[in-house]
Amino acid sequence: MADPHPDPKLQARTLTRTFGRGQKTLAALGPLDLDIPPGEFTCIVGPSGCGKSTLLRIAAGLLRPTQGELRIRTSSPRPAAMIFQDYGIYDWKTVLANVRFGLDIQRTPRAEANARAMDWLTRLGLADFADAYPAALSGGMRQRVAIARALAVEPEILLMDEPFAALDAQLRTILQDELLALTQTTRTTTLFITHSLEEAIVLGDRVLVMSARPGRIIAERRPPFPRPRTGDIRTTAEFTALKSELWDLLRSEVRTEAVPA
Ligand SMILES: Nc1ncnc2c1ncn2[C@@H]1O[C@H](COP(=O)(O)OP(=O)(O)O)[C@@H](O)[C@H]1O
Ligand SMILES: [Mg+2]
Both 245 and 189 in a single domain? Predict the structure, then answer.
């Protein structure tokens, strides 16, 4: 592996999490080491139940490690992280109020907050729905609202846990391409969890493969596609080759998991 960046935005050292006690202790995660340098989009793929959400919840400060540590270094009062899993938007707030939510928490003046929220809604093709309530939106539109809300606060680190898992394949591809375009503009340091290899290769500067539970990093690949890239890379031979290489790694972990300990 390459030398770690001297000042990573996110750093995990022997990060370990167990659940329960005694005979019923479940080793969910780690020990895991991870460095994410500023501006890097890191994707993590791993079999289901290997501890991916546990890692993200620790990074988001929602869960404590059992051992080891995870540190996020930020240089400004901007929030360290925004996370969105499933949709995570509020049904009782309008689309605009949902996107403004993080800005309201930061006490951004209302006029500025509205302008920034509208700007993000426009970038995601939702300007006409600013006054609508989420119930009136399709799944893809709801997820765009969640993306707009996360990006509107211009977080120093973006944490995403399978944000597109609930969407159908076509919509998923469209949102991958949108997120690709947006993040190549903002260059926000991102930790993106997915079980889709395609998604990881399209979006990631780096793809990390996690082992079966308790999840550890077992492989690292850098998709060989210079930025700015587009979704067109999906049809290249390099893409197919990397996808099958990653699938081979993942498949053996899925098997490991299927065998009772
Ligand atoms: N709060 C919890 N209490 C007990 N077990 C948990 C809890 N959260 C997660 N787990 C278990 O830890 C393991 C990893 O879960 P998770 O991080 O959600 O995996 P993934 O996101 O990779 O599918 C699973 O076996 C899961 O059942
Ligand atoms: Mg999960």
Answer: yes
